Amino acid sequence: MKKTNESNFGRTPFGQRLLQARQAKGLTQKQVEARVGITQSNLASLEREGTGSSFTVALAILYGVNPIWLALGTGPTTGAQPIPDWLARLAPNQQTSIQRFAESLLVLSKDEQTYALAIVESIPAILDAQRNISGAQG
Predict the structure, then answer these.
(1) Is-above-0.70 flag for pTM?
(2) Are 46 and 18 within 8 A, CB to CB?
(3) Alpha-carbon gap, residue 97 to 120, rounded angstroms
(4) Among 16, 106, 119, 131, which is most buried by a count of CB atoms within 10 Å?
(5) Is residue 46 within 8 Å of residue 15, measured between CB atoms?
């Protein structure tokens, strides 16, 4: 009689892909928690019964898999578009913050998106002005 893998019994397809990707990378749930910021209990729940998560892209980056495959189960397991160098240099929690910001833009109206992006684009000028003020006082 063929043995079944009971650890996969009852998992959602998304949960199974999460588990498979994490195990393939050789990471424990605790290690993922430390690197991505998702709690171990939340990750365990997602690996059992999850259908999606705001952490999907960050987990895909950590696991080295295609985010579309991880989220939807379609496309190649690997070979996703490479992340930009500037994003790869950031810490995982910073990558997660950027991902959350980008996802929040998707639910905004076009006018709200334009306004939010104008604010973001003004940040370098604001920081330069702050540096100039600090430099003049120092």
Answers:
(1) no
(2) yes
(3) 14
(4) 16
(5) yes
**Residue 94 structure tokens:** 């910073």
Residue found under tokens 């100039």: 132
Alpha helices in the chain (DSSP H): 13-25, 29-36, 40-49, 56-63, 67-72, 85-88, 92-106, 110-137
What's the rounded Cα separation, in Å, for the pair 53 and 46?
Answer: 8
Q: What is the pLDDT of residues 45-103, one digit of tens each?
A: 999 999 888 889 889 988 989 888 999 998 888 865 566 778 878 888 888 888 788 77
Q: Are 30 and 43 in contact (CB under 8 A)?
A: no
Kindly list the domain boundaries of the chain, sorted by start residue: 6-82
Cα Rg, the chain, nearest whole Å: 19
- Is residue 3 very low, low, confident or very high in pLDDT (cuts 50, 70, 90)? very low
The tokens for 115 are 């306004």
Q: Which long-range contacts (CB under 8 A, 24 or more apart) does 116-121 make?
A: none
H-helix or E-strand containing 122? Answer: helix 110-137
User: What is the distance between the alpha carbons of residues 99 and 79, in angstroms, rounded to a whole number?
Assistant: 19
Helix (H/G/I), strand (E/B), else coil: 81: coil
- CATH code of 6-82, in short, is 1.10.260.40
